[in-house]
């Protein structure tokens, strides 16, 4: 079953087509990677899906229903969560409050404060941050910060989770840890769509990869097919 | 720290606040009228500052529209004062400001940072200049008389408005609404992505903060007897709440209260003792505070409290 579909999704910034007539679909339970050189339009595509930016043309459907034109908080409450490329934690709030706020506001139905607290604690446990729950988010080292972003996104109870370079800046040991975490999230039944530059991670966890270049989709397929595709190799390595 | 000390601390603060409240309510019985009028003025500034902090404190959107909301209250009082009883005028002053803030909010809250500051400032200037133009060209007379109310009544009304503003501020801070506001102030883009309807939350809070400013304006107008657009919409009243809040520190609820109270009292003392130099002295004090106390008076108090706690811990 398709959980997310995009049909000729387009975004123009002035004269530049940042995302150009991109078709995509993501199936329930999949882990799909989104790769491409810098400036290919990956983050812009994420921003279009999460509702941060309005689309110029095209349509995005989530669980068969059109979500283009909805506000980010509405899309979030439907079950789409995301992390950000540059850290957008609530820096002056505690680790716990970051996740607690997301548990409290992330869903359509109203949740009681004790329930939200329990949920936040469970999620901090899940990403192994519960011992740091009293710390301010801004005092966390980068690895923990990324995990906190993940926990906060998970707290909104998503069915589809989008990671925007969740492994950027991590050391190899932390990358392995992050890959484990992604597998754990997937085992919860959550569909994952991820932008990533760390190839080892992409190859290790993705079922399918979409490649963007200059705003257009140039390839799509299994990790093996993508690594051997001449077009992709050309884009990444030059001729 | 164990539970008993926390509860006893809580009841201690509760008791202290209760005593202060009783003191404030009974004060006009045993102090000279001058003191009551001075306190009325101080309460007005505290009300404006606390109301300003309800919205601008957690969201970090610096609003310079306080004068607009306060002025709308003043004009409500001036225009309807003869026709309607006082309580209704005060409620209406608040409601008009509330509605104005809803409109401004829906128009401007997608603006951030500098643009929001400039827009809110322009709004109050626009209203002031429009009223001046209207009164000059349409009604032919600038300014109007406001119906007089006994100074004791003014004192009690402003005390009540201040009390309600503080209560509202307190409950908003502790509610899920307060957490939403804080998240917006910390990182708005992330806040909307965890399901917070930022536009709605901001607009409602902005309007609530305007409600108290309008009500305060409606009652204070009766104290001044005569008002015109220059008095009612004085830009000073947009800047003072900001300065007072910074002076006190917005981290805690008592920050703006102390800030405004000390600030207003200082102003009174300095104008009477040093009528020619008071602005100069005032400015110097403000510069010192901003340079050396980045978290305001609250920061100083908390530092001192922490120091005190450390000493206690070191000595078991």
Structure overview:
- The complex is a heterodimer of chains A (239) and B (316).
- Chain A contains 9 helices and 10 strands.
- By secondary structure, chain A is of the alpha/beta class.
- Chain A has a domain at 87-157.
- In chain A, helix 3 (95-105) runs parallel beside helix 5 (142-154) and helix 4 (113-126) packs across helix 5 (142-154).
- The radius of gyration of chain A is 18 Å and the shape is globular.
- With 316 residues, chain B is mainly α.
- Chain B has a domain at 32-243.
- Helix content of chain B is 81%, strand content 1%.
- Chain B has a two-stranded antiparallel ribbon.
SSE order and pairing:
The complex is a heterodimer of chains A (about 240) and B (about 325).
Chain A: E1 2-13, E2 16-27, E3 31-35, H1 42-50, E4 57-62, E5 65-66, H2 72-78, E6 80-82, H3 95-105, H4 113-126, H5 142-154, E7 160-164, H6 172-187, E8 191-195, H7 199-205, E9 208-213, E10 216-221, H8 223-228, H9 230-237
Parallel strand pairs in A: 3-8, 3-9, 6-7, 7-8
Antiparallel strand pairs in A: 1-2, 1-4, 4-5, 9-10
Helix pairs in contact in A: 3-4, 3-5, 4-5
Chain B: H1 3-26, H2 33-59, H3 66-80, H4 86-108, H5 113-139, E1 144-145, H6 151-174, H7 176-186, H8 188-193, H9 198-224, E2 226-227, H10 229-232, H11 236-248, H12 254-273, H13 278-292, H14 296-314
Antiparallel strand pairs in B: 1-2
């Amino acid at each position: 079953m398709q959980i997310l579909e995009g049909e000729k999704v387009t975004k123009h910034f002035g004269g530049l087509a940042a995302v150009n007539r991109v078709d995509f679909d993501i199936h329930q339970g999949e882990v799909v990677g989104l790769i491409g050189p810098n400036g290919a339009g990956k983050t812009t595509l994420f921003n279009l899906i999460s509702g941060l930016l309005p689309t110029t043309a095209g349509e995005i459907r989530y669980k068969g229903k059109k979500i283009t034109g909805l506000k980010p908080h509405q899309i979030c409450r439907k079950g789409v969560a995301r992390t950000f490329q540059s850290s957008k934690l609530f820096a002056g709030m505690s680790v716990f409050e970051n996740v607690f706020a997301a548990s409290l506001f992330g869903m359509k139905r109203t949740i009681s404060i004790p329930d939200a607290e329990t949920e936040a604690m469970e999620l901090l446990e899940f990403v192994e941050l519960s011992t740091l729950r009293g710390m301010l988010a801004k005092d966390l080292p980068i690895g923990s910060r990324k995990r906190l972003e993940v926990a906060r996104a998970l707290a909104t109870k998503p069915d589809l989770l989008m990671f925007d370079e969740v492994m950027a800046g991590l050391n190899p040991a932390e990358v392995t840890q992050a890959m484990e975490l992604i597998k754990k999230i997937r085992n919860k039944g959550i569909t994952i769509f991820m932008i990533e530059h760390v190839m080892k991670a992409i190859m290790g966890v993705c079922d399918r990869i979409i490649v963007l270049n200059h705003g257009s989709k140039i390839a799509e397929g299994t990790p093996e097919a993508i690594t051997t595709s001449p077009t992709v190799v050309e884009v990444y390595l030059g001729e | 720290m164990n539970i008993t000390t926390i509860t006893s601390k809580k009841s201690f603060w509760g008791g202290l606040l209760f005593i202060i409240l009783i003191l404030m309510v009974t004060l006009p019985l045993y102090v000279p009228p001058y003191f009551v009028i001075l306190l009325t003025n101080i309460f007005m500034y505290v009300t404006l500052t606390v109301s300003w902090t309800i919205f601008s404190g957690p969201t970090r959107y610096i609003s310079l529209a306080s004068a607009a909301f306060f002025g709308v209250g003043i004009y409500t009082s001036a225009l309807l004062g003869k026709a309607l009883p006082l309580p209704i005028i005060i409620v209406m002053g608040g409601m008009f400001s509330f509605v104005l803030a809803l409109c401004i909010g829906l128009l401007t809250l997608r603006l951030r940072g500098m643009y929001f500051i400039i827009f809110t400032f322009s709004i109050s200037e626009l209203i002031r200049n429009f009223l001046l133009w209207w009164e000059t060209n349409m009604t032919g007379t600038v300014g109007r008389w406001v119906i007089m109310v006994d100074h004791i009544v003014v004192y009690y009304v402003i005390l009540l408005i201040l009390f309600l503003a503080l209560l509202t501020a307190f409950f908003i801070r502790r509610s899920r609404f307060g957490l939403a506001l804080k998240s917006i102030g910390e990182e708005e883009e992330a806040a909307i992505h965890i399901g917070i309807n930022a536009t709605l939350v901001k607009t409602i809070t902005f309007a609530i903060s305007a409600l108290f400013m309008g009500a305060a304006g409606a009652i204070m107008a009766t104290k001044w007897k005569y008002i015109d657009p220059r008095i009612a919409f004085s830009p000073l009243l947009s800047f003072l709440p900001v300065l007072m809040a910074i002076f006190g520190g917005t981290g805690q609820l008592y920050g703006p209260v102390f800030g405004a109270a000390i600030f207003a009292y200082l102003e009174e003392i300095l104008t009477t003792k040093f009528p020619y130099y008071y602005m100069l002295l005032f400015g110097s004090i403000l510069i010192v505070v901003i340079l050396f106390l980045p978290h305001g008076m609250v920061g100083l108090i908390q530092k001192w409290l922490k120091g005190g706690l450390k000493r206690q811990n070191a000595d078991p």
